[in-house]
Structures are given as C-alpha cells and as structure tokens.
Amino acid sequence: MKENKWIRAAIPALLLHCSIGTVYCWGTFSKEIAGYIGQENSAVQWAFSFAIFFLGMSAAFLGDVVEKDIKKSSLIATVCFTVGMVGTGAAILLKSLPLIYLFYGCIMGIGLGTGYLSPVKTLMLWFKDRKGLATGLAVAGFGLAKAIATPVMQFFLNKFDNNPAYMFFIMGGIYCVMMFIGHRLLKKPEGWVESHEKGGIKEFFSTLGKNFKFSFSNKTFIGIWIMFYINIHCGLALISQEKAIFSTIGLSLATAATLGSVTAIANAAGRLGFSAWADTFKDRNTIYKLIFILSIALTAATIFTHGIVNQIVVLCVALLIMVNAGYGGGFSNVPTLLSDHFGMKSISAVHGMCLSAWAIAGLTGNQMATYIVEHTGAFDPETGFNPVGTQNVLYATCALYVVALIVCFVLVKSPEKEEAQA
C-alpha cells in the first residue's frame, strides 16, 4: 500500500515546527518572568539568546544523528523541548535565573535544533519536484507559530495572574502531544533506508570533524554560511527594534499590536513564498539576490529620508514587512540551496553545520542593535525610546546586506558554473 506524503512528511513537519517555533514568543512573557523572579529584563533576555545559540549548535553537532535516524532525532527533540518547557516553569516557581538559562536556553535549545532539522530532508525526498515549496511549508509553520501561540499564552498569563510558570506547564504538555504525534508519523519514503548504525563517542567526534572539514573547506558552503548569518543577524537586529520603531513613528498600542501580527504573518509568508518562488529559477541563489536587493533598497530609502525620526509610517512598515519576509525566506531556502550544491546524501549533516550561523547570529543580532541604541542618540523621557539610535541601526544593517549581496555573486556560483569550473 502506497503511503501518503502529506501524512508521512508534511503534517509531522508542521506538528514539529509549529511547536518549536514558539521560541519566538519569548517577548510575550519575558517581562512577567523578570518581574516574578525579581531580575532585570535584560538579564532574563539572555535565555532567548542561549536558546537560539543551542538551537544552531545542536543542529551542527547532531546533524549526523538526524541523517542516520530521524525517529531517534525527532524523539530527542520531543523529549528535550518538553523537558525544557516544563523545567522553565519549575525554574520560574523557584525564582532561579540559572535554571531558566539551563532549561529554556540549553535543554529546550537542543530540542529546537534537532526538531528543526528532523523533517527537512524527509520533506525534500517526498516532494522532489517542489522541494522548495515543501520545506517552505514546514518552515512557515515555525514562523507562524508565534502568531498562533501568542494569544493562547496571553490567555494563560491572564488566567494565572501573570505568573508564567503555569503557562509553561500547560503549553509544555500540549507541545509534547503534538511533537510525539509528529515523531510517530514522520517517515522517509520507501527506498531510503536509514542506517541505524551504532558508534561510540570516538566515532561521533570523528564524523563531526569530517563534516566540519568538508563543509568549511568548501568555498560555496562558506558563502552560503555568510549569507545566512548576515540575513539572520540583520533580521534579528531590526525585529528586536520593532516595538521601538512602531512607538517612535507615533502608532497607538492597538495599531502596533495589529502590525506586529502582520509582520509575523509576513515572516511565515516569506518562508513559503520565497521558497516556492525559488523552485521556478534554474539557480536557487537568485532568490537570495532578490531578498538582499529589496532589503538594501528599503533600508537605504529609510536612511536617506530619516524615516524613523521623521515618522514616515508607510516606509517604516514596508521595511519591517520586507525584513521579516526576507528573514523567513532565508531560512526556508537554505536546505534546498545546499541540496542543489551538495546533493541529498548528507544534506542533514551539511544543513546542521550551516545552522551554526543561526547560533552565532542569535548572540550578535539583538546585541548589536541594543549597543547602537544605547550608545548613540538620546532617549525620549516620555516614551522611553531612542529615535536617533534606532535609526542608526539601519546604517549597520544596510552595510551588512551589501556585503551579503556581494557574497551572493562572488562566492556562490550556480551548480552548472561550478561543474564547468571543476
């Protein structure tokens, strides 16, 4: 009996990614956590940075585990993500910031990395003719998770008098069920037999070393890694300033909240739209060139018009929609771009190595924007925001987008040109 690709690939991918994507809901409850445990919000914010760091590094370290056995990797993801959620709730009740770092940052981060990787190759195997659309669908679930989960989490926060601990317990249980169903359904198509080979710690690090050497000794991989890193770094830098930008350009809280949902949807739409669009190009790298050109154009326009300081609402909103869409599109196109250049045989391991860029960008993007805002311009005592400092973030992101565009043309050639030069 022929198995259904939607049941064995698309649905489990959505169940996994719609669960782990709620890591981006951190802003919904971070202030409540800081208030309940008696810590500065800036200190609590590091839990999110650690989660993204461990996401990328666990993907790099465990990419070979995903390659060999998606059942094992998806189960690891389910267990670690659930333990991370429930453990964070317990850490909040204990008012322990180090335990929040451990559970939300480290343990949940490992679940994020393995959960993110596990369905990707399976999707590309089932949807060979439209692999961009297939991976975009799953990764869109990761981006859309924030829009879906935020009102639910806010409901539980209100229900328990702004104590986020119980929200973590309840949501942890819900996501455990969703991810376990995804784990059970996920399966590669007939003909692709996973090795399940066993190896000790020595073999693990030997394979890891080979994967690292293979990836980072390749000019094309380095180019893709740099493009991916810059896109995430700039995306996080501007997305982290979204609330400040909306306030500075004079939007009401209700309007800002609505536009926040719009940018979240743009993030998800970019993941699906840009990856589906990339399927129509001979060279999938064309989509990155378009993302960077559009990002440069809107960023430069906002710089030259001083759009944030002068409160040019349409331009600032267009910039944030494009940054969110490009940020999402960059994620969904990485695995398919890598498969075009390196084939399907070891794509999970190579993709995992590339996600180390996400780990580093998770530590640098927000922090760069915060540093620029705090050290340039002046804060408005009435709003608590810094219009000039926020505007100055655009100079750094625009310059980095230009670097990424140059890398697109210089280091990442089309597969046909690579073969001709070989």
Can you characterise this structure?
There is one protein chain. By secondary structure, this protein is an all-alpha fold. It folds into two domains: 7-185, Up-down Bundle (Growth Hormone, Chain: A); 215-422, Growth Hormone, Chain: A (Up-down Bundle). It has 17 helices and no strands. Helix 11 (253-278) packs parallel to helix 13 (313-342). The protein is globular and about 65 Å long. It starts with a helix and ends with a helix.
Notable characteristics:
422 residues; mainly alpha; Growth Hormone, Chain: A; 17 helices
Summary?
The chain has 422 residues and is mainly α. The protein contains 17 helices and no strands.
Output the structural class: mainly alpha
Shape: globular
Q: Bin the strand percentage.
A: under 5%
CATH-defined topology of the largest domain: Growth Hormone, Chain: A
Number of strands: 0
CATH arch. level architecture of the largest domain = Up-down Bundle
Average pLDDT confidence is 87
Query: Which regions have little confidence, pLDDT < 50, spanning 5+ residues?
Result: none
Number of helices: 17
Q: Provide the number of structural domains.
A: 2
The CATH superfamily of the largest domain bears the name MFS general substrate transporter like domains
How far apart the termini lie comes to 44 Å
Q: Could you spell the SSE succession in H and E letters?
A: HHHHHHHHHHHHHHHHH
Rg (C-alpha, Å): 21 Å
Question: Could you outline the blueprint of secondary structure elements for this entry?
Answer:
Elements: H1 5-20, H2 26-37, H3 41-68, H4 70-93, H5 97-126, H6 131-159, H7 164-185, H8 201-216, H9 219-239, H10 242-248, H11 253-278, H12 286-304, H13 313-342, H14 347-354, H15 356-375, H16 387-410, H17 415-421
Helix pairs in contact: 1-5, 1-6, 1-7, 2-3, 3-4, 3-5, 3-14, 3-15, 4-5, 4-7, 5-6, 5-14, 6-11, 6-13, 9-13, 9-15, 9-16, 11-13, 12-13, 12-16, 13-14, 15-16
